[in-house]
Amino acid sequence: MSKPIVAIVGRPNVGKSTLFNKLAGRRISIVEDTPGVTRDRIYAEVEWLNKKFTLVDTGGIEPESEDVILSQMRRQAEIAIETADVIVFMVDGKEGITPADYEVANMLRKTQKPVLVVVNKIDNLSLEDNKYEFYNLGIGDVISISAAQGLGIGDMLDEIVSFFNDFEGVAEDEGEIKVAIIGKPNAGKSSLLNRLVGEERAIVSDIPGTTRDSIDSFVEIGGDKFLFIDTAGIRKKSKVKEEVERYSVLRAIASIERADVCAVVIDATEGVTEQDEKIAGLAHEAGKGVVIVVNKWDLIEKETNTMNEYSERIRKDLSFISYAPIVFISAKTGQRVSRMIELIKYVADQHAMRIRTGALNEVISEAVLMKQPPIEKGKALKIYYATQASTKPPTFVLFVNYTDIVHFSYERYLENQIRQHFGLEGTPIRFIYREKKDR
Ligand SMILES: Nc1nc2c(ncn2[C@@H]2O[C@H](COP(=O)(O)OP(=O)(O)OP(=O)(O)O)[C@@H](O)[C@H]2O)c(=O)[nH]1
Ligand SMILES: Nc1nc2c(ncn2[C@@H]2O[C@H](COP(=O)(O)OP(=O)(O)OP(=O)(O)O)[C@@H](O)[C@H]2O)c(=O)[nH]1
Fold it and tell me: How many Å separate Cα 312 from the centre of its chain?
């Protein structure tokens, strides 16, 4: 099952950031050369009772007036309803219910999704009774916490993860390749999806997503089944640039989670922008297969070397996904769209690849022979044994003498050696180190 998404909605100042910071303490470490992604506090990976989920913060813009707050709250709630599996509605237990709270409650009441009302700033027992008035909102369970004091957080997490069981049983996997078409606004995602769905007569159905209010499209192409995860832009457009970008990132996170392969759509007329880097970085970090799709190629003036030069520039700008194939398409004319599909299929296979332990160890021993690990902290790294622990993405466990002296550049070297032998094109690969005691 894909990782559930939990969205926090709430007025400014109710304490969303405070809670976020409390929970985000144990963020999964980020590959250091992935740009952009880490610095924004838009989402965090949280684990509780062995259950992992992605927490997203739908707020974040400083509003000046009461009606701006209201319109923003509406949008936050919309986003949460569209993208989340569980919605946490945070309110201020010191201030009590406000008109904006009622407004949001009215919206959230219409969703089928579980909503948990979290009353914050209940810093001590004498304030506990403040929570009862929030039952008047008429949505879901009400639970009190103090984000600042760290009170009630465990109970809140218990409640949140208890909702996950509701959709754990949903059978999403029918052997189809799950594809997220992601990219910044206006890159041509909908056009591409329409072409894919429109051209092929073999669509099974447009079914509303089983766990989210999204529309997924099943398409059968040349005997292969694809599920294109709905990535339509947030329906109502905002004029605030930061807001547009924030929501497109949230949107991407939601679809990436469910995908095997991400088609990162770049607008050829604009080249790689910072937001493209960010979105590609999300796919990389999530361990998904990636195909870089340069769209609107019909609009580019071409000379003999245009495509190569363009590729080189992309390789520079998106160096952290150097493993991803690039394809130049036009969603408008259909040029190379079928090539793109072939690549997606190919990358999906690579992403799911299992390498035999014997072959893996041969390649690693050979790599070590050709180039010894550097001495770190006066110690020499020894790699005893390696095995593939999981697929999607391929993840290798290396048994070593000391886990704290594995140097980033040596890991890079091993990664390259493995790729040279086994391909693994289009997929990130991961290493886990285990210390072997009997040195
Ligand atoms: N007493 C008390 N104060 C809190 C608690 N949690 C947060 N605060 C305070 O409430 C204020 C707002 O907290 P933030 O976490 O910034 O609120 P926010 O909802 O993220 O606000 P925006 O970023 O504007 O959306 C800060 O002064 C916090 O110190 C709490 O549990 N108890
Ligand atoms: N010339 C040309 N125009 C394209 C192509 N693909 C999309 N467009 C145009 O680019 C604009 C944006 O396309 P959309 O498909 O709406 O882009 P999107 O990425 O879904 O945008 P959001 O919904 O905002 O995220 C539209 O005017 C399309 O007609 C293409 O391959 N060539």
Answer: 26
pTM above 0.80, yes or no: no
CA distances from 240 to 7, 72, 289 (A): 21, 11, 32
Are 212 and 309 in the same domain?
yes
State how far the alpha carbon of 191 is from the alpha carbons of 198, 266, 333, in Å.
Answer: 10, 13, 10
List the domain range (segments joined by +) for residue 334.
192-349
Residues 212 and 326 in one domain: yes
Contacts (Cβ under 8 Å, ≥6 apart) of 220: 200, 202, 203, 204, 226
Ligand nearest to the CA of 334: 2
Same domain flag for 162 and 203: no
* Residues 2-53 pLDDT 10s: 688 898 888 888 888 888 878 875 443 333 333 434 334 567 778 888 888 8
Q: Each residue of 132-177: pLDDT tens digit?
A: 999 999 887 899 999 999 899 999 999 999 888 655 444 455 679 9
**Given the CA of residue 194, which atom of ligand 2 is nearest to it?**
15
User: What lines the ligand 1 site, CB under 6 Å?
Assistant: 10, 12-18, 59, 120-121, 123, 146-149
CATH code of the domain in which 241 resides = 3.40.50.300
Report the CATH number that the domain containing residue 386 is assigned in CATH. Answer: 3.30.300.20
Q: List the helix and strand counts (H, then E) for the chain.
A: 12, 18
Is 295 contained in some domain?
A: yes
> Who's near 433: CB < 8 A, 6+ residues apart?
397, 398, 399, 400, 403, 406
Q: Which ligand lies nearest the alpha carbon of 20?
A: 1
Last residue of a domain, which of 289, 320, 349?
Answer: 349
84 and 145 within one domain? yes
Among 79, 181, 186, 215, name the best residue to mutate to test ligand 2's pocket (greatest count of ligand atoms within 8 A of Cβ). Answer: 186
Q: Are residues 246 and 322 in the same domain?
A: yes
In a domain, 174, yes or no: no
In ligand 2, the atom with minimum distance to the C-alpha of 331 is 31
| Total domains present in the chain | 3
Question: Relative to the alpha carbon of 279, which ligand is closest?
Answer: 2
pLDDT in tens, 258-303: 899 999 999 999 999 988 998 999 999 999 999 999 999 999 998 8
Instruction: Please state, in angstroms and rounded to a whole number, the distance separating the CA atoms of residues 410 and 422.
Output: 18
Domain end (from 323, 349, 375): 349
